[in-house]
Amino acid sequence: MLMEYIIETENLVKQYGAATVVNNINIHVPRGNIYGLLGRNGAGKTTAMRMMLNLVFPTSGTIHLFGVDCRENTEKLYCKIGSIVETPGFYENLTAYENLELLRRLRGKQKKEYVQDALKVVGLQNERTKPFSDYSLGMKQRLGIAAAIMHKPELLILDEPINGLDPIGISEIRLLLSELSQKYGTTIFISSHVLNEIEQIADIIGVMHEGKLIEEVNVEELHKSNRRYLEFKVSDTLAAVKLLENHYRITDYLIQEDTIRVYDHTYNSGEINKCFINNELLVTQVNVYEENLEDYFSTLIGGGGIA
Amino acid sequence: MLNLIFCELLKLKRSKMLPLSIVGALATPIMMLLEALQTHFEHPEQSFTLSDIYENSLLYVMLLMNMLIYVAITAYLFSREYTEKTLKTILPVPVSRNKLVIVKFFTLLIWSIMLSVVSWIGSLVLSTIYHFIFGLDDFYFTASLQWLIKFLLSGILMFCTVSPFAFLAEKTKGLVAPMIISAVMVMGNVALCNQNIGALYPWTATFFLLEGKTESTGYPILLSIGIIIFVSVIGSCATFHYFKKEDLK
Description:
- The complex is a heterodimer of chains A (about 300) and B (about 250).
- With about 300 residues, chain A is of the alpha/beta class.
- Chain A has eleven helices and 15 strands.
- Chain B has about 250 residues and is mainly α.
- Chain B has twelve helices and no strands.
- The longest helix of chain B is centred in the middle third of the chain and has 37 residues, at about 95-135.
- The two termini of chain B are about 25 Å apart.
């Protein structure tokens, strides 16, 4: 069956003068999935999202939302989308209710109770008189989330939505997003530089680095394929390697100083260890490791961590 | 569109700019009262009429005080979406960029007219007080109504000439540049308000036109009107074009 993509970009490019901020990216976000876009600060995530929201115009390439070019029929298209771009911006002199009421009116044909419902979801229903200028960063972020979800959108585009939230707030938002995806089939496109947060909710992860999308991978498959390996600390790595190749026909290994990583799972650690000892090699350490996502993505972007 | 207008007005709720602009618009009538009092005590033999007060008020309103206020309002309306970073919230709603600019110009027009009316009311109230204490010649309410029409027209004409400041506010994303340029523009008003060439300077041309002084300058009225329209159209087109094409980083 042909996959239905809610967001699909084709060779999307954004240049500012000589600088290419987004370089030929092809993103595919299937319906009902949570897509996590990872990348360091300055990787081009926010610019890509701004292009999807028609805030920034692409230099070249196309963006299809719900299968339609995002520049066509924008009114019909964007009323199905909720968004946060970095720290949310609201009118400083208005309260949370007034700010959401303003958005409700701009959208038109929206039920009045949507405002109060959205405020309840993010726990701001009692902030009746405080203007937005007096809000903490966490409160501003929660109001941004309320604005994004209040009209029950089919697609959420969220750029760093957990910025400034405390651990409880982060956990609540994570639960909310998972619920929106599972219960209502909302497609969520979320960016972050915190791998841990994305890993817990995303179905698909895209990794951007220096403007390019260097990986787009299904999280479940990634976990399955995450490489487990055996690590042996031995007295003579060259002799040990010879034994692995000749005795077990193992070629999937990696030598790091005095340790050997064996990625081939055909033989267990005890068997290989016994072989080394029988061949008079001194084995001082045997470990079973699983490469975590941090290592995986760090390797992808050439080291240094994802954040 | 009605919803957009309502929202634009809602944005002004609790905004300090609204009461400040009203206070600013009342500055001219207060100055006129002080001037009248000074004249009364220094030259008690001199008498003046309600029309004299309104004429002087209109001069200060159009060339000095209200012009500065209207530029400040224009800059505030067009730059606050940048300073408060609200465009990224409202544009994906979606709100059409063109409609947003139209509504902002409409709000500016309403606000300008409202402030002109405030200046007119201020002049009327203070003149009435003066009249009851010291006496004014030809003090008729009907005379003040004739001036109301002129004040309303002044609001519209001044609205036409502030559109370049809307573009400037968009481009610089703040109040500072428009306010500095407006100070230069007002200095130009002061320098040219008694010169014939003032008929060709858009911000004095509006005053000359309203006061029927253009003909006496020797320049054709149509040229004066053409210059005002030109400035207005250029300013508006630049504002629309820039906002429509701008990347909101």
